[in-house]
Amino acid sequence: MHWGWRFPSALQTMRTFYDGMADGQLLKATLGSLRRILVAFGLSCAIGIMLGVLFARSRLLDETFGFVVVALQTVPSIAWLPFAIIWFGLNDFAVVFITTIGATWTMTIASRSGIKNIPPIYVKSAQMFGTGRGLRLFYQVMVPAAIPQLITGMRMAWAFAWRALVSGELIARGVGLGQLLEEGRSLGDTSLMLCIVLVIAILGTISDHLVFKRIEDRVLTLYGLQTAKA
Amino acid sequence: MLTLLSGCGSSESSGSSASSGSSGSESSGGSKSADPITVKIGLLKNVTHAPAFVAIKKGYLQDRLGANVKVEVQGFNNGSDFSTAMATGEIDIGYVGPSPVINQYVRSKNIKIVSGANNGGAVLVARKGAGVTSVKDLAGKLVAVPTKGSTNEISLRLLLQEQGLKVTTDKSGVQIIAMAPADTLTAMKQGQVDAALLPEPWGTQIANEGIGEIAVDWDQVPPNKGNYPLTIIVASDGFLKAHRDLAKSVLLANEDAIQFIQGHPEDTYKLVSDELKELTGKGLDAELIKAALSHLSLTTNIDQEALQAMAQVAVDAGYIKDVGADGLDLTGLYDLSLLKETQEGK
């Protein structure tokens, strides 16, 4: 059995990585994917937090649309791709759309429970100090109090977004890691395929360690839930 | 030789092949994991694969292979999927376009081209309203091909090269997208794709439905103005090694089918439509098949020079890497000895 090409060697994969970076193909694809995921992630955080707060604050909304969100969360975002293609075409927009959808519901649910789980005493004392019930209460008290949950939600949303992004890119046109992965498959280029998988894994790790984990650590330290690292 | 005829002859050969089967059976020993008396044939669901359809429907394949061989047919949407399936042993022998085979061969080196089936049969079709009447107009447009690195994409790249157009990922040049032909038809209807280089009958179908017009006819598509291998017969090394005689039977059945199509074109349409119906659940209009069949030339010959030129396009496109200084060596890709035997045997 000829296994050599099915499992590319480390050397082959590194060479493909180097070639891809040198001729710009891999770099462009990575940047393209990053651009899409950042846009989608930003959107889903904004929409998710907004919806989460609404659900947490309004019992009526929570008991009607809140249920819909839980239902939607169980739908894999790739299931929306056929619609996205018909609505927006096989372009970036469709991919950003399903990536946003993929991350929004998780974010909504995380921020909803984040706000709901704020100890009532925080809110009451804040109101006693004169924040009122409006915007000031929201950004001065509720958002900071919900941050640990929000960060957890973001981490999950980030992972969900990657899943949706790559599956969307496998089909849509444009320049991205998903497209390159599909190209590797079409050409039987296993080293390229492995290369993409590694790039995604590395990007995921880097973003988690350098961004989310750092914010989380800082917040936890700030809130006295963890002692500062030396 | 086991070929031909009924009754005792077939029971004898089934006995002999069963014994040879037990010696090299299921286990890990051989490079082929299939049951020895099952031949798994792959093909694409395009009219350009008409010889395969006729060989199956007319029973040539079964006749040539003998009654003790079980024929299993697997349809594929594109040559990439086909080539992966062949390289991983899911199919033994089959009909496909040459470029995905070359892409796969340079990586896995375990498949061989054994015969031709058909030259040409792809057209460039442009969407009505896209403003494309010649190749030059493709600048800034989006053009679909069935799969990355497909024979059609190579033709498209050659066509663009002739006009000095560049393939890009933005509007400054020609953008290429890989898409199943059926999806291309829908995408063109919605105005998302401007043109497509597709195997027949898709081009004619898009033109007939009024969605697009043929911009470059089959006999103008490079290389060699339509006279390039578009459908060939490929077999896995494992199959050729273990069942050379069966591979030869497939080639004979292919020749039978080509002769039949050339001699009885009117009877061919129904056969092709029936086989397509079995593969895709949908038959095709006889008129469409007739048009498609008039857009190709059936031949068992393999134009190695044309294939070498097409491989070079794949190299230039970056699909094939690590090419030595003296160009791409494809000598190991061909095993035309069986073809020679069948051609001389006539």
Automatic annotation (TrEMBL), chain A:
Q: Does the keyword Ligase apply?
A: no
Q: Which residues cross the membrane?
A: 37-55, 67-88, 94-115, 136-158, 191-212
- The keyword Manganese belongs to this UniProt entry's keyword annotation: no
Which Pfam families does the entry mention? Answer: BPD_transp_1
**GO BP terms:** transmembrane transport
Q: Which parts of the chain are coiled coil?
A: none
Q: Where in the cell is it found?
A: Cell membrane
Checking PROSITE patterns in the record gives: ABC_TM1
Membrane topology per the entry is: Multi-pass membrane protein
Write down the InterPro entries for this protein, in alphabetical order: MetI-like, MetI-like_sf
Q: Which UniProt keywords apply?
A: Cell membrane, Membrane, Transmembrane, Transmembrane helix, Transport
| One GO cellular component term | plasma membrane
- Report the residue ranges that make up the ABC transmembrane type-1 domain in this protein: 30-211
Alphabetized Gene3D superfamilies for the sequence: MetI-like
Q: What is its main location?
A: membrane
Q: Which PANTHER family match?
A: ABC TRANSPORTER PERMEASE PROTEIN MJ0413-RELATED, ALKANE SULFONATE ABC TRANSPORTER-RELATED, MEMBRANE SUBUNIT
Q: Which family does it belong to?
A: Belongs to the binding-protein-dependent transport system permease family.
Q: What is this protein called?
A: ABC transporter permease
